[in-house]
Amino acid sequence: MDIRDYISSGILEQYVLGNTGKEESMEVERMAAAHLEIRNEIAEISRTIEQLAMANAVTPSRNVKPFLMATIDFMERMEQGEKPSLAPLLNEDSKLNDYSSWLNRNDIVLPLHATDPYAKIISSAPGVVTAIVWIKNESPLEIHHDEYEKFLIVEGSCDIIVEKEIHPLVPGDFFAIPLHKNHRIKVTSDIPCKVILQRIAA
Amino acid sequence: MVTERKYTEAELVKLLKEKDKPAFSYLYDNYSGALFGIVLKILNRDEETAQDVLQEAFVKIWKNLQSYDGTKGTLFTWMLNITRNTAIDKLRSLKRVSIQSIDNNVHKVDSQHHHSMVIEKIGIKEVLNTLKPEYKTLIDLAYYGGYTQQEIAEKLNMPLGTVKTRIRAALVEIRRIFA
Fold it and tell me: Which residue of A has its CA nearest to B173?
């Protein structure tokens, strides 16, 4: 097959995008191994796709990274043999004492150079994730349509602002974020506000 | 957490394969925006679901780095494909999309203004908007919608060969814009 025709057939774009089947991919790889021109073309297409994506980049909420890092940390801890434990569901009557076995752990602390917020997952069950979270300043505005968020304040203090209502919270206080409402958290203490956070699929 | 260190792609891949968390943090800082832009497009700007998908995709990236083969593609295109597939699986599981609504969505996506997000490099985005509309539609379907050439051909009622060559022509045009 003529190299130029092969390139202009559009198959390389599909290959780079992962849209080719196994047979087709192997064929492209054979052609690439044999022809520098095809290798260069694949590199060029890859670069264009990356530039296109970078040009259309949208910064995700600041809350995503801390929970991603916490998820990875939790997966590693489980792989390394940490015994899974089930944190009780948060409700109006929850007491800090109910969570003392996690709150007293010396590996669940805020590190020196941490993201803000910083999270450590303590329990994961289908549809329910429980974490200890430290917030230094303010958490960005969020709205949940398919997840309940429940808080129990451990240390420090914060205002949870739901739409225009301000709810000042101190250690021992419980708060549940209603669905479909804009909310954000503003720390009102000098020290980071430490909370137990439970996310429950709605 | 601002990652100050810079890595070459080879260093980054090596560290990631060793499950190095600072390298992963750097990867997130540098590529999450590009990937999130794509996820948002695929999920029609459903921000909450898009955030879940972005996290799920990065977890898969972390778990599967061992199997990344640099001879078969760049790290970014590998991540992009994982992310797109995760978003498309999500979209299909939500059954929010029907064949009929696709074309509407494709046109709607860029006209929607997104208040809470920072869209970076507006200049290049505007240039992309100067692409011929049929090229833009193809790019949106193939790159952001995750449709196969066959599906696009059926959707747009266009011969398969035309779909292939036009996708290529669109990319060549974009390449010219970036040059």
Answer: A48
